[in-house]
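TICKET: design request
STATUS: open
ATTACHED STRUCTURE:
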C-alpha cells in the first residue's frame, strides 16, 4: 500500500447561513481504477451533531463533534475508484444540517493504492472542552493486524498554520485559513497490532479542537479464496506418484 496524491479545499468565508450547502473539492491527481479515495470534511463554526455529507459512490461516517456549539464536526468518506474517477476534475459533496450555519469547511481527499475500502477500526474521537488549548490527543485504536495503515485527522478553529505533528506520522494534507479553520490529515504504517497509543497534534494557536484516529487494512488482508482459474492451473501442473 502506498500514498499517491492528495488535494485540499478551504472556504475563506462561510457565506450565507443555510441548512444545506455543496462544497466542490478538486480531485487528487493520478487516480487509477481500484485506488482507495479517502475524503475528510471538517465543518467549522456552529455545526451541530446532525451535520452530514453525501455523494453517490462514497460511504460517509460522522466521526467527531466538538463539545462547543460554536466549534466543528468531522466526517470521513471512502470509496474505491472506478473508471469515472480517473478523469474526475472534482467532487461536489452535499452537506446538510438541521440548523442554519455559516458552512466554514476544510476538506481533503487522499489517494492510496493497495488499501481496502472499509475502516478496520471504529474511528476514535476527542473534543476539547475549552477554547484555550493548543494540543489535542486523539484516542488510541486497536487494529487486529500489524499491516494496517493508521490515519489521523485534526481540526481547529484557530485559523493558523499547524506547528508540531505527532511523532512518527507523515502529513498528507494541510488546509488553513486565517481567522477561520485549520485541518491536518496524517498517516503512519503500523508495525504491530494492538493499541496504537494516542497521537497528539499541537496547533500554533488556541481554540476548540477535534481529533480522530482510525485504521484501514491493506487490500485483500482479510484473505480471499483462490479463483477457479488458479485451482485449475494448480491441478494441471501438479504431478502425482503412486
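STATUS: resolved
RESOLUTION: sequence designed for all positions
ATTACHED SEQUENCE:
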Amino acid at each position: 500500500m502506498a500514498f499517491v496524491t492528495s488535494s485540499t479545499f478551504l472556504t475563506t468565508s462561510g457565506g450565507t447561513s443555510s441548512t444545506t450547502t455543496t462544497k466542490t473539492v478538486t480531485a487528487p491527481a493520478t487516480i487509477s481504477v481500484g485506488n482507495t479515495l479517502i475524503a475528510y470534511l471538517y465543518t467549522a463554526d456552529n455545526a451541530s451533531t446532525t451535520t452530514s455529507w453525501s455523494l453517490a459512490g462514497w460511504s460517509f461516517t460522522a466521526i467527531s463533534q466538538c463539545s462547543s456549539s460554536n466549534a466543528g464536526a468531522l466526517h470521513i468518506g471512502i470509496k474505491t475508484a472506478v473508471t469515472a474517477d480517473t478523469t474526475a476534475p472534482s467532487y461536489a459533496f452535499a452537506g446538510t444540517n438541521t440548523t442554519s450555519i455559516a458552512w466554514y469547511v476544510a476538506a481533503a481527499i487522499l489517494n492510496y493504492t493497495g488499501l481496502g475500502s472499509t475502516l478496520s477500526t471504529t474511528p476514535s474521537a476527542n473534543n476539547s472542552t475549552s477554547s484555550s488549548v493548543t494540543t489535542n490527543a486523539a484516542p488510541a485504536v486497536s487494529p487486529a493486524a500489524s499491516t494496517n495503515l493508521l490515519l489521523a485527522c485534526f481540526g481547529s478553529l484557530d485559523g493558523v498554520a499547524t506547528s508540531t505533528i505527532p511523532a512518527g506520522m507523515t502529513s498528507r494534507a494541510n488546509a488553513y485559513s486565517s481567522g477561520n479553520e485549520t485541518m491536518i490529515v496524517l498517516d503512519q504504517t503500523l508495525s504491530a497490532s494492538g493499541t496504537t497509543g494516542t497521537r497528539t497534534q499541537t496547533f500554533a494557536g488556541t481554540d476548540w479542537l477535534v481529533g480522530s484516529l482510525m485504521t484501514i487494512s491493506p487490500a485483500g488482508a482479510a484473505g480471499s479464496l483462490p479463483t477457479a482459474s488458479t485451482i485449475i492451473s494448480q491441478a494441471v501442473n501438479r504431478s502425482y506418484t503412486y
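CLOSING REMARK: The longest helix spans residues 228-236. The longest strand covers residues 90-101.
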